[in-house]
């Protein structure tokens, strides 16, 4: 079974070089997979890194393409179009793949009933993470995850999971299934085009759930995700939650097959009640400690703040969707002919 590894990249030449090296040094024979790199309009030395990589690994099947259309969807769909493998293996340009990564994925898809696969996405922290970051891990019966940094660990046994629990940095799917599901939705749109942001792999996952597609988690389907210091800041989380609010609005509008405004704005009175509840909980946890000693990084304060950022992103997108250009974009049947529309003028 032949695999096509697809890596969209934009201005991350240093990380990309490490990613490509790890993919080239797999335990799986280089004859059993190809590497497709999509440069999404990089202005750094990405082109030189790619050229050197191709020259260094001349025995590998490596192809590179350039398309500057903004957004991660450019690389995802162009990579699928150019691929020759039965299974598409999507990876981000800031991961390091474990040695048996592709061998494991190939083994998973030997079962003809499997349509999607994911695995462990563990952190490669640039510095020791602050405690408040670790508070954002979610523990549940399957394992733990930190979606804000695309991290998950669902244990050391092979199991069937929901397609909602595989993310784009380590996302494998049969090529036939990708097209049957209508492909990915827009993702990682540049700030100037934020109104055209979509929900990425979420829309595809929801359709896979509706069709009862089988999705397998395997612990040896393992990648390490770079987490630089700049992502372990409140400023980054603010932007991440605003972005997630946009994504959730996109999902909601498509789910309702049209613009149905969901009131998420919180009134001043509701915010006051929430704030006082947070204060009460913190005092209860800390005993008689003075409220004056509360820190900005307290997880309860942070969640309240980030919830507001999520609401702001949601409202931004709902308002943008009132414009016909954005509204029609949200409801497109698919995004295989991916070209962003002109920005609305009013």
Q: Structural class, from secondary structure content?
A: alpha/beta
Instruction: Count the DSSP helices.
Output: 11
List low-pLDDT spans: none
Looking at the structure, the CATH topology of the largest domain is Spore Coat Polysaccharide Biosynthesis Protein SpsA, Chain A
CATH architecture descriptor name of the largest domain: Alpha-Beta Complex
Features of this protein?
alpha/beta, Spore Coat Polysaccharide Biosynthesis Protein SpsA, Chain A, 2 domains, three-stranded antiparallel β-sheet, 11 helices, 12 strands
Task: List the SSEs and their pairings.
Blueprint: E1 3-9, H1 13-24, E2 33-39, H2 46-56, E3 61-66, H3 72-82, E4 87-91, E5 95-97, H4 101-108, E6 114-125, H5 131-134, E7 138-140, E8 143-146, E9 151-153, E10 159-160, E11 170-174, H6 175-180, H7 201-210, E12 214-227, H8 234-255, H9 268-286, H10 299-320, H11 324-330
Parallel strand pairs: 1-2, 1-4, 2-3, 6-12
Antiparallel strand pairs: 4-11, 5-12, 6-11, 7-8, 8-9, 10-12
Describe this entry's structure for a reader.
It is a single chain. By secondary structure, the protein is α/β, with parallel strands linked by helices. The chain has two domains: 3-232, Spore Coat Polysaccharide Biosynthesis Protein SpsA, Chain A (Alpha-Beta Complex), CATH 3.90.550; 236-330, no CATH class. It has eleven helices and twelve strands. The protein has helices at residues 13-24, 46-56, 72-82, 101-108, 131-134, 175-180, 201-210, 234-255, 268-286, 299-320, 324-330, and strands spanning 3-9, 33-39, 61-66, 87-91, 95-97, 114-125, 138-140, 143-146, 151-153, 159-160, 170-174, 214-227. Strands 1, 2, 3, 4, 5, 6, 10, 11 and 12 form a nine-stranded mixed beta sheet that branches. Helix 8 (234-255) crosses helix 10. The longest helix has 22 residues, at 234-255. The chain is globular, with a radius of gyration of 21 Å. The model has no long low-confidence stretch (mean pLDDT 90).
